[in-house]
Structure formats: C-alpha cells, structure tokens
Amino acid sequence: MQSKKEKRTALMQELSPIFRCPKCGEELWVDEGARLMCIQGHSFDLARQGHVHLTKKPAASNYSSELFAARREVIEGGLYEKLHEALGALLNGEGETVLDAGSGEGSHLAALKKKKDFDGIGADLAKAGIEMAAKGEDELLWVVADLAEAPFLDSSFETVLNIFSPANYEEFQRITKNGGTVLKVVPESRYLQELRELAGEAAYSNEEVVEGFYRQFPDAESSKVSFTTAVPEHLRLSLLKMTPLTWKHSEDKDFQNKARHMKEITIDVLILKGKVQKQHRFQSGAEPS
User: Are 15 and 119 in contact (CB under 8 A)?
Assistant: First the structure.
C-alpha cells in the first residue's frame, strides 16, 4: 500500500512539468528522492504528509489551525453542497488540470474532486492549512506557495479557482492556458447574514471586487448561488470559529451561547467566470497557425 508521500510523488511525476522554482524561475522536476529539483541546484523536499513548500521564505498567517479545522468540519458537513454543485457544473472533468488558489485546508477542492475527475492542486501561503489538507485527500497535490509569485510554469492549468480568497490576476492569467478559465467566488450581501447580525457587522459589499474582476475579464459571466440551510447543532460552534467575522467574540461566552441556538445560515455568493485570452506573438513574416 502506497504512503501519502508515495502517492503524491507519483502525482507530481504524472503532472510534470508544471512547477517552477520560486528562487530562480526554472522548471522543476521530481528526482529519485521525491524532491523537486531545478537546473540551478535548488531543491524542495516533499514532506512526509505529502505536501511541498515552494516559497522563498516562511510567511506568517493570521489563519489558525483551529479556524481551518472548523472550516473543514462545516464544509464536509454539507453546508456548501449547492455551491459545489454549481462549481462542479463549470468544470470539464477528466483531463482537466485545476488549481485552487488560496485553498486553505482544501475542503472546497476535495469536495469538487468527488464530483468531477480532474487533476487538482491546492496552493496557499498558510502552512497550517496546507498541512491539514495534505493529511486528507490523497488524489490531490498540496503546495505552500505565494500566489503573488506562483511556483507554476506558464499555461499550466485549464482552470484556476479562487474561492473567498484574495486574487492576483496577473499571475492567474500567466499560469492559465489560453482559452482557460478563472472562476472566482465572492460573497454577496446576505452571505452568513445570521452570523453578521449576531456579531453586529454590517452587510458585505462586493462591488469593488466584482468591478476588479470585470476589468480583467470584460466578457466575464456571472451566476448567483443563494440559499438558506439548516445548521445541525454539532456544527454551530464550528461555523462560529471558521470566519474572521467572529474573532473578536471568540472568548465571549454569551455570544457563543447565542451561536449555539442559530438554527440556519444563509449562503449567498456570486460565481464569476472569466476566460483567459492570450495575445500570440509571431515572428516577422510568419503566418498565424
């Protein structure tokens, strides 16, 4: 029986070449010792859990292991099922290479993998999230990465997912194949409204984020997923812990007690779909193919 490390090594070899060295930008390949190596001699070990660090230096994150664990419990509990159905319908499936940019603990990507057969990589700068992801789903790759300098070669992915996470569109377009897709999920005004009201937070406005996406992808399409779902009692405190919305109330017993009685939650999001169109450059006198 293969270990997680052996399975991930085989996946990396299957997808090669896809990674580039974060230090020099050269192509990375997998050597016999399950390390990623480049021609300049830089090397990156695959951790025992099956993930790899492809960053120039460690980075701090505001997101804790507790938050990632709570988010995984909520997502695996099925509260985002309708969102996953909508995203799954936008994926091609077999033969498609998908990057979840800002994957955290990887629960969304793992849920989508159960719906469609694709080659998937989750990347995030938060080490705690990637380590947690690597301990779970065996058929996906997990990378600690700075998405402002993504450690992937040009035109590596058919689809880049960006779910409730900051985006770097210049890098997304570089690493996505011509004609490929960037899918971004952003909250709408009613997203987690029950928690917002409990925490005394104003409704969220996504206007600036949406406008930014359309500047990059003027012909983008959008679709809305909005529903209110029951929250099982065993998930209510996890729902409280999974979002920065409630961080300042983490030690407030009265607030926690009220959250335990929160029987439903609203998921209200916008899915933005942009197509990557790259300009081809031809040598003088050459005809387009």
Answer: yes
CA 167 and chain centroid, separation: 10
Tell me the average confidence (pLDDT) per consecutive run of 10 residues in the chain, 289 residues long: 80 90 95 89 88 84 87 96 97 91 96 94 95 87 95 97 96 96 97 91 92 97 97 92 82 84 95 89 34
With contact defined as beta carbons under 8 Å apart, do 152 and 175 qualify?
yes
The token duo for 139 is 């058929």
**Is the separation of the CB atoms in 6 and 138 below 8 Å?**
no
Assess contact for 180 and 266: CB atoms under 8 A: no
User: 93: which 2 tokens?
Assistant: 């499936």
Architecture of domain 4-275 in this structure: 3-Layer(aba) Sandwich (3.40)
Instruction: Quote the pTM value.
Output: 0.92
What does the domain layout of the chain look like in residue ranges? Answer: 4-275
Alpha helices (H) along 93-192: 107-113, 127-134, 169-175
